[in-house]
Design goal:
about 475 residues, Uridine Diphospho-n-acetylenolpyruvylglucosamine Reductase, domain 2, Uridine Diphospho-n-acetylenolpyruvylglucosamine Reductase, domain 3, Alpha-Beta Plaits, 4 domains, 5-stranded antiparallel beta sheet, about 35% helix, binds flavin-adenine dinucleotide, binds D-malate, binds zinc ion
């Protein structure tokens, strides 16, 4: 037997070191684009075990790929094809360690599934606001390592802004005990911010202390139809002015994106999509009452209709109806999977430039690739679009990607750059964008990132080939 596997079995017990059997769930990425092969999968149950695994791997010169729920969309959480890497799954470290209602914080282990954390907090009348379509599987550690966004960023910020403290196993196998619940602490470099968004390339997050909010008195959802991106942006401005911090969600969905949901999940009964170029999902959170929330929301929508910004709108009458509307939005990704492999773009732009960007980039794509189908949707309130490209009707998606993916990426990313945007708003770099990033990111920033990586991980043992090549 491989001596490292033997040593890892000694540390964790044989049951928690998997080296044969079907490891596909750990080795294949969520989109089914890539399947790697691990030397073994280890499932530590404590921070000390993670540290011992890291030390053993470092001694053997073997690299580690950390994995949470494996829902990442940029091929960052699976091993490469060499069969030499150790896949470190955090799934067993899933406890909510401590909830402090007076401090409005919760400390949870990295493998805790987001939805479970949300539920534990809700049971205490508290809100952990991070919310993503993958929340039934993604984990606290994965969320922080990717600095995940989702549908509540507009009000509460992304994962980074919700994190106060971290516990991290460094590349050397030391434990940084940084689980503070302090909102103010200016005692040197912000190591927490360095690890957040580092996609497992600088160390392993084993636990985090996160910010909570009181559960609001009411949350109302509306679905509005608009004729253009310009109109959606106008509606955003109006809703922000009228609702202020009450506006907690603002998502835009293009007609083709919704047609895919209608096609693959007809039981969802997508409203208003047939006659309008875009639909918008708005959420109004209110700390007073349901009636107060409805009154303010209806006032916004009435004004929007009067000003000709929206064509039509529905306000959910119940929590169940609101859930259905959100479920439609969150099913766009799955509808795309049903339609076949596609080219994903996860971009951000200044909101003031979004309409011009969409017009220009869509025009360029239509000219270059006749028949391509644009799945344009996303978190408009954050200036973040999922500007995805699906193969023309009847064209084999895999062949389409093979031929056109690089050219399409260049067209879209050049446009993003021209409008001062970012090529990754929330999914990260992984290995999918690792060779693209240097073309679009400031060279000095790239060089500094390289120096940070070399300083913290001189042997390139932590998720090599991700973020930096
Ligand atoms: P994984 O996929 O397991 O890992 C992601 C990265 O983090 C990898 O690089 C991995 O090595 C690293 N990592 C994982 N855990 C640790 C750890 N403990 N320590 C160090 N590194 C670690 N993302 C958004 O931002 N917004 C969305 O709205 C959104 N919606 C999605 C909807 C669907 C249907 C799907 C499938 C994905 C969506 N995602 C979204 C992407 C994905 O769910 C997020 O990136 C999520 O945060 C990943 O969490 P995970 O636990 O699955 O991490
Ligand atoms: C979303 O917002 O639904 C996601 O980030 C997933 C996607 O891009 O498909
Ligand atoms: Zn998203």
């Amino acid at each position: 037997m491989n001596p490292l596997i033997e040593q890892l079995q000694h540390i964790l017990g044989a049951a928690h070191v998997l080296s044969d059997g079907n490891l596909e769930a750990y080795e294949k990425d969520w989109r089914g684009r890539v399947r790697g092969r691990a030397l073994c999968v280890v499932r530590p149950g404590s921070t000390d075990e993670v540290a011992a695994v890291v030390k053993a791997c470092a001694q053997a010169g073997v690299s580690i790929v950390p994995q949470g729920g494996n829902t990442g969309l940029v091929v960052g959480s699976i091993p490469d094809e060499t069969g030499q890497q150790v896949l470190l799954s955090m799934q067993r470290m899933n406890r909510v360690r401590h909830l402090d209602p007076a401090n409005l914080t919760v400390t949870a282990e990295a493998g805790c599934v987001l939805q479970r954390l949300q539920q534990s907090c809700a049971e205490q009348g508290l809100l952990y606001p991070l919310s993503l379509g993958s929340e039934g599987s993604c984990t606290v550690g994965g969320n922080l390592s990717t600095n995940a966004g989702g549908t509540q960023v507009l009000r509460y910020g992304n994962a980074r802004e919700l994190c106060l403290g971290l516990e991290v196993v460094t590349v050397q196998g030391d434990v940084w005990h940084g689980l503070t619940g302090l909102r103010k602490d200016n005692t040197g470099y912000d190591l927490r911010d360095l690890y957040i968004g580092s996609e497992g390339t600088l160390g392993i997050i084993t636990a985090a202390t996160l910010k909570l909010y009181p559960q609001p008195a009411a949350q109302l959802t509306a679905w509005a139809a608009v004729a253009s991106v310009e109109a959606a942006v106008q509606l955003l401005g109006l809703a922000q002015r009228e609702l202020g911090a009450g506006l907690t969600g603002f998502e835009m969905m293009g007609q083709f994106a919704l047609s895919l949901v209608d096609k693959h999940f007809p039981e969802m009964q997508v409203p208003l999509w047939r006659d309008h170029a875009y639909c918008v999902l708005l959420e109004n959170t209110d700390n007073e009452s349901q009636d107060h929330a409805r009154e303010r929301f209806e006032h916004v929508l009435e004004q929007a209709i009067e000003q000709g910004i929206i064509g039509d709108a529905v306000v959910a009458e119940s929590v169940a109806q609101a859930r259905k509307l959100w479920h439609i939005r969150e099913s766009i990704t799955l509808a795309q999977v049903q339609e076949g492999l596609n080219i994903k773009h996860d971009i951000s732009l200044p909101i003031s430039s979004i309409a011009a960007f969409v017009a220009q980039a869509e025009h360029t794509l239509v000219q270059a690739i006749p028949g391509m189908r644009l799945v344009n949707f996303g978190h408009l309130g954050d200036g973040n679009l999922h500007f995805n490209v699906q193969a023309p009707e009847g064209v084999d998606p895999a062949a389409f990607l093979q031929t056109h993916e690089d050219a399409i990426n260049t067209l879209v990313y050049d446009s993003v750059k021209a409008f001062d945007g970012s090529i990754s708003a929330e999914h990260g770099v992984g290995s999918l964008k690792v060779h693209t990033l240097p073309h679009y990111k400031d060279p000095v920033a790239m060089a500094l990132m390289r120096r940070v990586k070399d300083a913290l991980d001189p042997g390139n043992l932590m998720n090599p080939g991700r973020v930096l090549s």
